[in-house]
Amino acid sequence: MTLDAEAKMQFLFALRSKGVMDKRVLTAMEKVDRGAFITGHFAERAYEDVPLPIACGQTISQPSVVGMMTQALDVQPRDKVLEVGTGSGYQAAILSHLARRVYTIDRHARLTRPVRKMFEDMDITNVTVLTGDGSFGVPEQSPFDRIIVTAAAEDPPGPLLAQLREGGIMVVPVGQSDAVQSLIKVTRGPEGFEYEELLPVRFVPLLEGLGQE
Ligand code: SAM
């Protein structure tokens, strides 16, 4: 077995051992090469289960956390999904294999521009990459069947709750940015929102406004 194939096998094993069991999620994660979303010498560590630095002082999340969040989101093939926090584009690429349509938004144009280009090169046609403050959601495309937030908010943002379809699911890390946060699954039922705490996580904060160029 080549080193690369062995690293990938260990990668999938690490995902399973951390609780990522959903076959569709594992298949999508097997298809998406995390190494393509990391530049410089950190690319060598693409198959380790650790978060890694990307541009703008941001991070590509730990693969097992990406897997757990995607699993909790329970994306269905006809779903329209919103991701807040494009970062490297890795999570959006995984979602592109699971959903009908994906909108992903980041406050840094310096991140969204190369991701848009990369998706064109990869022939990923069902993802729209937007630049803006995602805490307000994307009202013109709402309601969404699923919303995933990949930066920590003190509370699930009101505009995002409002843009979640009835029956929809939102996954969001909640808590102070300098402390351990909780990953929360929000389900919108006919009577209102139900909240379930999933696991402790650590994410960069959801910030207001646009990032500096
Ligand atoms: N999902 C990403 C991936 O697959 O690489 C990782 C996201 S990184 C942990 C968090 C991202 O959230 C950063 O790129 C940051 O710029 C973005 N972010 C923070 N606040 C935001 C906001 N209000 N609106 C949109 N993006 C925001």
Q: What topology does this entry show?
A:
Elements: H1 3-17, H2 23-31, E1 52-53, E2 59-60, H3 63-73, E3 80-84, H4 90-96, E4 101-106, H5 109-121, E5 127-131, E6 144-149, H6 158-162, E7 164-174, E8 181-189, E9 192-201
The protein binds S-adenosylmethionine.
Residues 58-61, 84-85, 87-88, 90-91, 105-108, 111, 133-135, 150-151, 203-204, 206-207, 211 line the site of S-adenosylmethionine.
Task: Please describe what this structure looks like.
By secondary structure, this protein is α/β, with parallel strands linked by helices. Helices cover 28% and strands 26% of the residues. It is built from 6 helices and 9 strands. It has helices spanning 3-17, 23-31, 63-73, 90-96, 109-121, 158-162; strands spanning 52-53, 59-60, 80-84, 101-106, 127-131, 144-149, 164-174, 181-189, 192-201. Strands 5-4-3-6-7-8-9 form a 7-stranded mixed beta sheet. Strand 1 (52-53) and strand 2 form a beta hairpin. It is globular. It starts with a helix and ends in a 12-residue tail after the last strand. The model has no long low-confidence stretch (mean pLDDT 94). Bound molecules: S-adenosylmethionine (SAM). Residues 58-61, 84-85, 87-88, 90-91, 105-108, 111, 133-135, 150-151, 203-204, 206-207, 211 line the site of S-adenosylmethionine (SAM).
